[in-house]
Design brief:
heterotetramer; A: five-stranded antiparallel sheet; 4 helices; B: 81 residues; 2 helices; 22% helix; globular
């Protein structure tokens, strides 16, 4: 089990080797890659910015939770930071498991948790020269925030009300 | 009073024009007090009604107590992956 | 879109490159690997045997159906034949898609279809020197056969009744 | 009459001790007739009640007509992946 924020290109072969074991019958992988279009705007690349110590803590926590929930020690999560060109992998998740359904379920659970809990932000660079911080769900900040709050474990949840805001 | 440099990221940091904002809150202050103080000190940040806040790298509750030694951060809606 | 039966080790990096595109925001991969235990028996390796021309036809058909169903041209399926040692990959499925949910759904759909339709069999070699053809589901032949029949497209289904058998 | 070498795989081939079994069926025979002929010619194969059969690399129905030029195969329960 290993998680990391990385500054250089994700080495998929190394990650696959890490979760490969004769105990496993299945290996599931997911990679997020930089797409040339988002919300109908033409994208040049994305700058990934993380609150590094907290992002690392959350990623490690997600890997541990996935291991407990789906029953495997063979979990690797890597997330890149810095500027990524089109087609480059921003995140890689690998899960080895004796059973294929569990491997795939764990992978999907991890990617959803990661998108909801890990403090990483992306600044999209558009081909017209503009840049914008991506807001998932395209809702207002307050909607996005509430949605995130709803999935963070009760013991670990923020809800700092600003009554006069 | 305790003084804190509250960490800012992404759109919050851009709006404030800084990576952190210094606020003073009374001894015994809670996360909600810190958020109010940031709102006053840096009104240009478009904070949602209930912004996510981390204390020492963990998501914190509104009534979590804050000490001078804590690392406090305002967490904009995350967008990793 | 490419499918193949292969005699040599599966080259994951090459497959990943094939389904990588700036149009895609997600890349989902699945690999089946040879496990050291099956039905509580200790396994040494597995010999994969295919009805090659039909297996190739079915794999190509599954890739096309997945492309139509999930909306992507970025599908690769490779299945190995011959003797595989523990930990080696027997099958690799890769799907690139603009959206992560579709990439993962397509991958899962393909692996399930492949296991139900593609004429490939495995002869497990056990550490005690014995060998046995694996029967998925551990049911009787007639149960397995009925289960397979139920998922093959109506237009493509076998149901050759042997009334006097 | 037409003569066919019906292809066998995996456990079927092992049971028959051969990769194919030659059968003769009447002109106009259907898949079900071929299966019955295989059952008679190679009774050692433990065929299920409704074995999967492929004609020219496609799964076939029991009443699919078979010609001398067709490649017919009995498909044991598949186990790939």
């Amino acid at each position: 089990m290993r998680t990391a924020l990385v500054g250089a290109r994700i080495d998929l072969a190394a990650i696959v080797a890490e979760v490969t074991s004769p105990d496993n019958g299945a290996l599931s992988l997911f990679m997020g890659t930089v797409r040339n279009v988002n919300d109908e705007r033409s994208v040049d690349g994305i700058e990934y910015n993380a609150y590094a110590p907290m992002a690392e803590r959350e990623m490690a926590q997600i890997a541990r939770e996935a291991g407990d929930r789906f029953g495997t020690e063979h979990v690797v999560i890597e997330h890149r930071t810095g500027f990524l060109a089109l087609g480059e992998a921003s995140v890689a998740i690998a899960v080895g498991h004796p059973r294929r359904a569990n491997a795939m379920d764990a992978t999907r659970w991890i990617v959803e948790q990661l998108k909801q809990r890990v403090p990483i932000w992306k600044l999209e660079h558009y081909t017209d020269g503009t840049r914008e911080w991506v807001q998932h769900g395209r809702g207002t900040s307050s909607t996005s925030s509430a949605a995130a709050g709803a999935v963070i474990p009760e013991s670990d949840r923020a809800s700092a009300g600003v009554r006069d805001a | 009073m305790i003084t804190l440099d509250v960490l800012l990221f992404a759109s919050y940091a851009d709006a404030a024009g800084a990576r952190s904002v210094r606020v003073s809150v009374p001894d015994g202050a809670r996360v909600s007090d810190v958020v109010r103080a940031v709102h006053t000190a840096a009104p240009s940040i478009a904070l949602p009604a209930r912004p996510l806040v981390a204390v020492n790298h963990r998501y914190a509750l509104a009534d979590t107590a804050v000490a001078a030694s804590d690392e406090v951060a305002l967490i904009p809606p995350v967008a990793g992956g």
